[in-house]
Amino acid sequence: MNPDKKIIIDELLERVNSSPFVLVVEYTGMTVPEFSELRTRLAATGAECHVAKNTYMKKALTEAGLPDPGESLVGQTAFVTGEADVAAAAKVLKSFEKEFKKPAIKLGILDGDILDEEQVKAIAELPAREVLLATLLSTINAPASQLVRTLNEPASSLARVIQAKFKSED
Known about the structure:
Structural class: alpha+beta
Distance between the termini: 98 Å
Number of strands: 5
């Protein structure tokens, strides 16, 4: 293999291995300013968008042990990887596609599974990670909070009775 190709594939492999997800989009018809704007919006979420030859990306995905995307890697494709939050990156892609009618989401790879366009868009509908964590925390805390209120109720009732008694004696 050509050493230059090996370097490119190794760089792609490093990106794929360091990211919990890969989103594949078709960017046909996008202008340079639009592509720059997409990259800027993705960067705000901790994600990056890169263009690479489809054959190089297939090789990197295979070396990473991820599933083969099959015939989806045709045409002008770009690859989105990120640090952690797939939902944030998917939201950016979905809103950008709605605003500019491109890029078209083709597929995603998350936790070793291939996701189709609809599944990636469903992930985009999820609330932000912080909101999900707050919801989980409130769900976990709800029984404990209710228990504390229940245990405090007799004490507060007793305190009201005692206060009423002292007020009536004055």
